[in-house]
Specification:
The complex is a heterotrimer of chains A (about 270), B (about 350) and C (about 300). Chain A has about 270 residues and is an all-alpha fold. Chain A has 12 helices and no strands. With about 350 residues, chain B is an alpha+beta fold. The mean pLDDT of chain B is about 90. Classes of the chains: A mainly alpha (about 270), B alpha+beta (about 350), C mainly alpha (about 300).
């Protein structure tokens, strides 16, 4: 009886894992398939589809997405640290209410935020900033609550005794912020910034309203293309952008380089 | 300039209207090892934080070397502080931790290195400078915290229960080491603890706090022998506390009636008889008489029945009923030659009048 | 040793850092006001005003609730979100239980496999499902080659496809909240139940499931809200035939240029989501109230 149950359990786990990995495997396989129909598992493989990516058609949207995501990560990183500093470190009056306000965009669906921004800009006659400036602003609105929350959590978990220890050793407030507080919250902030980069880079629901035709971000270019073709170039684009995201995560992890110090010795 | 490194002048502190420290006066002479001892919540940590500058007194003044510190932020007081949880900076190596204070003061790099070396040597951690704190044992981390605090040569070193996170053996070894470091540096140490053994072992002077006030201060020995109040007698060491009242004064001794029993005790204390409320007898000062010892002048003799014996290894702890509802704890040394009495047997206890300390509360 | 600066008493800054704290908070508040609070206010305002005269009116809402297409979209959104919530929770549970309890070295592998798709982005995963479910996709191709079906099964451009795709998108979040909740259950409770003679099945039914109800509720909630507000997956997998509020809003803005109606739809979607979230918060509040009551009785 227990045996059967255990088998059923493992079967369930296996099937769900298959369900999770199947579409990814299919896309990777399709991107390497020489056939333009994406219905067969490739018994031969080719990198031709990846070669097709190195054209303006895909490079321009990619570069735009990278530019926007970088700015969004930087802006929301700085603003998030500042806000968390004011709320958690300085404990300004009304901190809870202010925090709730800063996090409130999280409870509104992206598509609703997107339509609100485009309607607002049109009503006040600022259609001119549609495109890159509006995309950056909207993505910052999207990312800022996450970054603020992660920075605030890092600051809240920060052992106040470290600050006091530095103070008893003669460190002024500026020195403490620079040498103790910032390094200690760096991992939290960096993961927030990485997250900001990714959600900006992958964003669709806000971007669909705000891109200017002919000057789109990569995900929007992809879904526009998908409307009429499923060819393996699509697979290649998607796999390439996933590899790019993984590289970005790896890079930020390197910059952080913090886990080694916390857990390792001097090796 | 007087000879005090730290002076607290009628300092009070309350949090949200609740007084935590009330009208505290304390002078700490240069070079002394002073322990502030008290149970948790007695205000000792608040007092330490007021010296360090993390708490501002509600009233009164904190002075370091005669200068009022009221408007001086902690980072300008030049005091060292060792934390209970060490508070080592996890993102810095041991050497960077120890050099931090000097670096913040703008000391040239060339001087920081040797100073760090010296500080690490004085806590016997030379050679570990390149490690990160997480790679060290608890005892080593505690030494790093100590080295970090003394490296900038503070006026006074404040220690906030620094040994309470260590295990017993290490704690006892560190007591000796801390005392040696103190002697070697000649720096004033202010040591906050709730552990009376720790305070007894290291301090030149102990300040006992209770309910936000100092109840007694003095050398460890005199506090142990002459506790001023019931609280001190109970808190420092173990004691039998009996409610008594004065009955007569002889030439050399007071005679006390133990409340609710026919027992009479003689005490060598010569204080105002009217103020006597109770007395304290240390368990180890009571001896078992087996008829061979000589009778000392004025010695108290009490007959009792052994109710219970607890073996503590080096000592045997006897609970002896001496009257209805009145029992004394007696500590006798375990020895190969003398076997302790059996439970239920009758014994005679001898108490020197000098060991009967009268208390006023 | 003579280099150490003496503690020269310095005067503390007269005003503590309060003002500067407000200053550093200002940029965040400004950005959120300009690009979130004001737009939301304007949009909600637009849904209640007449396009020409700007007079307050419920006309747009009346139109929404009497329009068959809009109501169908609302119904499809709700149906889709409920199905996604259920399938995420059912599929996620075994994985979550494994992640919470296993100590084998496969745990890390399962963890990575379960959560890594989140990095891949929505488009890649949706595209994968498109390839699999299309009329000429993997499944239909295989079935037809094997001669099991004569014509392709209708696997894409419908509710089924959207629910499959969204389940895949939301699953990692469901797994995370379920795992957290199951991890909070003391493993000794399971051992105690077993010692008292319960079979594995009864342990799951009488101990694990009841105690993980909070995790199940939060998994349902997060799945529902994520599904209801999803845009790309319904747009790609639902096609022109299966429209939900999110895709309809997009059409209203960019094809029909009917801003006020788009605003009404956005408000409808927002209200639906907030209602569900509110129910979740109330459930959580009641649960903690019950717990503190119980503790009160005990003491």
């Amino acid at each position: 009886m227990n045996r059967v149950l255990a088998c059923l359990f493992w079967l369930a786990v296996g099937l769900v894992l298959l369900f999770i990995t199947l579409p990814l495997a299919v896309v990777v396989a399709a991107s390497l398939s020489p056939s333009s129909a994406v219905t067969f598992l490739p018994w031969e493989w080719t990198l031709d589809w990846y070669g097709a990516l190195l054209t303006d058609r895909w490079l321009q949207p990619f570069l735009l997405s990278v530019r926007i995501a970088t700015l969004v990560a930087a802006i929301s990183g700085v603003l998030g640290i500042l806000a968390a500093y004011a709320i958690v470190y300085e404990r300004i009056p009304g901190a809870t209410a202010i925090m709730a306000g800063l996090l409130s965009p999280l409870s509104v669906p992206q598509i609703v935020k997107g339509v609100a921004i485009v309607l607002f800009l049109s009503i006040i006659g600022l259609q001119g900033i549609l495109g890159t400036p509006a995309l950056i602003a909207a993505h910052v609105v999207l990312a800022l609550p996450f970054v603020t929350r992660m920075a605030a959590t890092s600051l809240a978990n920060f052992d106040g005794n470290l600050d006091r220890a530095a103070q008893s050793l003669g460190a002024t407030k500026r020195q403490r912020l620079q040498h103790i507080v910032l390094p200690m919250i760096k991992p939290g902030v960096l993961s927030g910034v990485t997250f900001a980069f990714i959600i900006s880079f992958n964003n669709i629901p806000l971007s669909v309203f705000l891109v200017r035709p002919g000057d789109t971000t990569l995900p929007i270019a992809v879904i526009n293309y998908l409307e009429y073709s499923l060819d393996p170039v699509m697979a290649a684009v998607n796999v390439a952008s996933m590899i790019f995201i993984l590289a970005v995560i790896f890079l930020f992890e390197k910059i952080g380089g913090f886990s080694a110090q916390l857990h390792g010795g001097s090796k | 300039m007087n000879n005090y490194d730290i002076e607290l002048v009628s300092v009070s502190k309350s949090f949200a209207g609740l007084p935590v420290v009330e009208d505290l006066n304390l002078q700490i002479p240069r070079g002394e090892f002073v322990s502030i001892l008290g149970p948790s919540g007695c205000g000792k940590t608040t007092t330490l934080n007021m010296i360090a500058g993390f708490n501002t007194p509600s009233s009164g003044d904190v002075r370091v070397r005669g200068k009022s510190q009221t408007r001086v932020p902690p980072e300008r007081r030049n005091l060292g502080l060792v934390f209970q949880n060490y508070a080592l900076f996890p993102h810095m190596t041991v050497a960077e931790n120890v050099g931090f204070g000097l670096r913040m003061r703008g000391t040239p790099k060339a001087e920081i290195g040797p100073a760090v070396e010296a500080a690490l040597r004085s806590v016997r951690l030379d050679g570990l400078g390149a490690r990160y704190p997480k790679a060290l044992s608890g005892g080593q981390q505690q030494r790093v915290a100590l080295a970090r605090a003394i490296a900038p040569r503070p006026t006074v070193l404040l220690l906030d229960e620094p040994l309470s996170n260590l295990d017993l053996k290490l704690r006892e070894a560190m007591r000796i080491e801390l005392k040696e470091i103190h002697e070697q540096l000649g720096m004033t140490f202010v040591y906050v603890t709730h552990d009376q053994e720790e305070a007894m072992a290291m301090s030149d002077r102990i300040v006992i706090m209770w309910q936000g006030a100092i109840v007694q201060q003095g050398e460890p020995d005199s506090i142990y022998r002459n506790p001023a109040t019931r609280f001190v007698a109970d808190f420092i060491g173990r004691s039998n506390i009996l409610s008594v009242s004065w009955s007569a004064g002889e030439a050399a001794f007071l005679t006390l009636n133990v409340d609710g029993s026919p027992i009479v005790l003689r005490s060598a204390c010569l204080t105002d008889p009217q103020g006597i409320r109770s007395c304290c007898i240390r368990p180890e000062s009571i001896v078992l008489l087996d008829g061979t010892q000589e009778l000392m002048p004025g010695q108290n003799r009490l007959d009792g029945v052994v109710r219970r014996i607890v073996n503590l290894g080096a000592h045997q702890e006897l609970l002896v009923d001496i009257a209805d509802g009145l029992a004394l704890t007696v500590l006798v040394r375990s020895g190969r030659s003398s076997s302790p009495p059996e439970p239920g047997s009758t014994v005679t206890l001898g108490i020197d009048p000098h060991d009967v300390q009268v208390l006023s509360d | 040793m003579s280099t150490i600066a003496l503690a020269a008493p310095a005067v503390m800054p007269a005003a503590p850092a309060r003002t500067s704290a407000y200053v550093v908070l200002a940029p965040s508040c400004l950005v959120l006001t300009m690009f979130f609070a004001l737009p939301m206010g304007v949009m909600i305002g637009m849904s209640f005003t007449d396009g020409e005269t700007l007079a307050p009116t419920f006309a747009h809402y009346q139109r929404f609730f009497s329009d068959g297409l809009s109501l169908a979209g609302l119904y499809r959104t709700a149906m889709m979100s409920i199905l996604v919530a259920l399938s995420v929770t059912v599929l996620g549970y075994p994985i979550a239980y494994f992640l919470a309890r296993s100590r084998s070295r496969w745990r890390a592998v399962v963890f990575a496999l379960a959560l890594a798709p989140e990095l891949a982005g929505v488009v890649l995963r949706t595209y994968g499902w498109l390839i699999i479910l299309e009329d000429r996709g993997f499944i239909n191709d295989a079935l037809m080659n094997l001669g099991l079906v004569a014509s392709p099964l209708p696997l894409s451009k419908n509710l089924f496809a959207v629910v499959v795709g969204l389940t895949h998108v939301v699953l990692p979040f469901g797994i995370l909240s379920l795992t957290t909740s199951i991890q909070g259950i003391d493993p000794n409770l399971e051992r105690a139940a077993q010692m008292l003679g319960a079979s594995r099945l009864s342990v799951v039914r009488h101990v694990i499931l009841p105690l993980s109800v909070p995790g199940i509720v939060s998994s349902l909630l997060i799945s529902f809200t994520m599904a209801a507000s999803a845009y790309a997956t319904p747009a790609l997998l639902g096609g022109a035939r299966f429209k939900v509020l999110a895709t309809m809003i997009y059409e209203q803005v960019l094809f029909y240029i009917d801003w006020r109606f788009a605003a009404v739809m956005a408000v409808a979607l927002l209200v639906m989501m907030l209602t569900v979230s509110f129910l979740g918060i109330r459930y959580e509040a009641r649960r903690s109230a019950r717990r503190s009551n119980r503790e009160g009785e005990r003491s």
